[in-house]
Amino acid sequence: MPKHIIIDTDPGIDDSLAFLLALASPEVIVDGIVTIHGNASTTQVTTNALSILELAKRSDVPVYRGCELPLVQPSMLSPETHGNTGLGYAQLPAPQSQAQAQHGSDFMIEHIMSHPGEITLVCIGPLTNVALAIRKEPRIVQAVKEVFIMGGAIRHQGNTTPLAEYNTYVDPHAAHIVFHSGMPMILTPLDVTYQCIFTTDDLSRLQKIDSPITKFIADSTRFYMEFHDEYQKIDGCVINDPMTLALTFMPEICDYENLYVDVDISAGVGLGNTFADFYNYDKKSPNMKVALGVRPRMFMELFLERMEKLAKPNS
Ligand code: BDR
Ligand code: CA
C-alpha cells in the first residue's frame, strides 16, 4: 500500500528534487504540498512549487500556501545557497495553476484529522506550519501517522552557524514546539545528509537523457554546486531533502538511534543548535528516531534511477 504524504517545503533546489523523487516513486502518493518561508519568500516558493509540478506534468497535486514568517525570529532567506528565486540557474515558466485558497496549516489539520493514522508528514523546510498546526489542533499529534523531518545537526557541525542547521536555525521556536509535541518523528540531520554528495558524475549520468527534467536538475544543481564549492569546499552538492523523502519508503538507507533531542532557543551562539542526550543524563524518554548512519550509494542509486524514469519520454 503506498503511503499518503504531505510535503511541507521551501523550494529550494533540494526541495524540488524531493518533489521529483516523490512523483517518480509509486511507494508514495502526494496528497498535497504546503509551502513555507525559508530558502526564498513564501510567495516565491509557492510559485516554485507550482512550476515544478507543471514541469513534472503533475499539476493535479494541490499546493497550499503556508506561513510567511518564523514564529519569533525575523525572516532569513538563503539566496547565496539557492539563488534569488530559490531554484539556482533554472528558469521555469510562470505557472498556469494557482495555490489553493486554504492556508497550509489548516489543510494539514483537516487532512490529518479526516484520515487518522494514515497521513505521513514530510517536513523539509523550517517547521513553522507544523508548529502552528499543533497549536491550533493538538489532536493532530495522535492522528498523524509519522513525521519525517529534515533538520538539525547532532554530532555534525552546523551549515548556517557553527552549531546550527538551516531549518532549525530559521525557526528554532517552531522546531522546539514540534520536538516536544509527542508526534512520532524521524529526524534526518546533517550527520547523514552530508555523507551523500550528488556529484558531476551523477549529473552527467542524468544528462544522457535529454529532457526538461534533466535540464532543470542540471541548471539548479550547477548553482548549488558552486555554493558548496565556495562556502564548504565540497565537490558536488548535498541533497538533504530528497534523502529525507527516500526514507519514507526505503528506511534501510539509514541506521537509527532512539534519542531525546532538543533544540536551543536561548538567544546566544547556540540558537537553533540540536543536541541529543546520548548518555541519558536527563532521564527523559526518547522523543524521536534519529538517522545517524547511512549507505550513501544506496540512496544515490535510488535517486538517479527514479530521475531517469521520470525524465525518459513516455515513462
Ligand atoms: C536544509 O536547508 C535548506 O537550505 C535545504 O533545502 C534543506 O532543507 C539543509 O540544511
Ligand atoms: Ca528545504
What do you see in this structure?
Helix 1 packs parallel to helix 12, helix 4 crosses helix 5 and helix 5 crosses helix 8. 39% of the residues lie in helices and 17% in strands. It has 13 helices and twelve strands. By secondary structure, the chain is α/β, with parallel strands linked by helices. The chain has one domain: Inosine-uridine Nucleoside N-ribohydrolase, Chain A, CATH 3.90.245.10. The structure holds beta-D-ribofuranose and calcium ion (CA).
Summarize the structure.
The chain is 39% helix and 17% strand. By secondary structure, the protein is an alpha/beta fold.
CATH top level assignment = Alpha Beta
Tally of contiguous helical segments = 13
What is the CATH homologous superfamily assignment? Ribonucleoside hydrolase-like
CATH overall fold name: Inosine-uridine Nucleoside N-ribohydrolase, Chain A
Question: What's the count of strands?
Answer: 12
The portion of residues forming beta strands comes to: 15-25%
Radius of gyration, CA atoms, in whole angstroms: 18 Å
**Low-confidence spans: pLDDT under 50, at least 5 residues?**
none
Oligomer status: single chain
Q: How are the secondary structure elements laid out?
A:
Layout: E1 3-9, H1 13-23, E2 28-35, H2 42-55, E3 63-64, H3 79-82, H4 104-114, E4 119-123, H5 128-136, H6 140-143, E5 146-150, H7 166-170, H8 172-179, E6 185-188, H9 190-193, E7 197-198, H10 200-207, H11 212-232, E8 237-238, H12 240-246, E9 254-259, E10 261-263, E11 274-276, E12 288-294, H13 296-311
Parallel strand pairs: 1-2, 1-4, 2-3, 4-5, 5-6, 6-12
Antiparallel strand pairs: 7-8, 9-12, 10-11
Helix pairs in contact: 1-12, 4-5, 5-8
Bound molecules: beta-D-ribofuranose (BDR) and calcium ion (CA).
